[in-house]
Amino acid sequence: MKVMLEEHLEEMNNKLRSILEGTGGSLHIEEFLYLQKFIQGRGDLIETMLLMAHHVQLEILVAIKTGIQAFLHPSVTIPQSRLVEVFLYKRCQNIAC
C-alpha cells in the first residue's frame, strides 16, 4: 500500500464519511458505487497486504467495501486484524460482533 500523510488520510476519511451520509444526493451515490466496484476488482488486497496498511487506510477500505459509515467514526477503534477479517468476509460486519 502507498504510504500517505496522516492529514491526507484524515481528509479522505472525512470525505468518505460525507459520501456515506448521502447528503450529496445522486452524485455521492454514484461516487460511492464507483469506489465499491473499484475495491471489489482489486485482486491485490489480500490479508498480508491489508495487515501492512495504515490503520486509517484499512478503515477506509472496510467502510467502502461494507458501506458502513461507523468504521470511519473517530470514537470507534477496531483492531487492525479484525478490520482485515471484516474486509475479507471472515468476520461479521456488525461492529458489535
TrEMBL record:
Record GO cellular component, one term: nucleus
BP-aspect Gene Ontology terms: maintenance of root meristem identity; maintenance of shoot apical meristem identity; regulation of gene expression; root meristem specification
Entry-linked InterPro entries: OBERON
Name this polypeptide is given: Uncharacterized protein
Coiled-coil region(s): none
Organism from which the protein derives: Zizania palustris
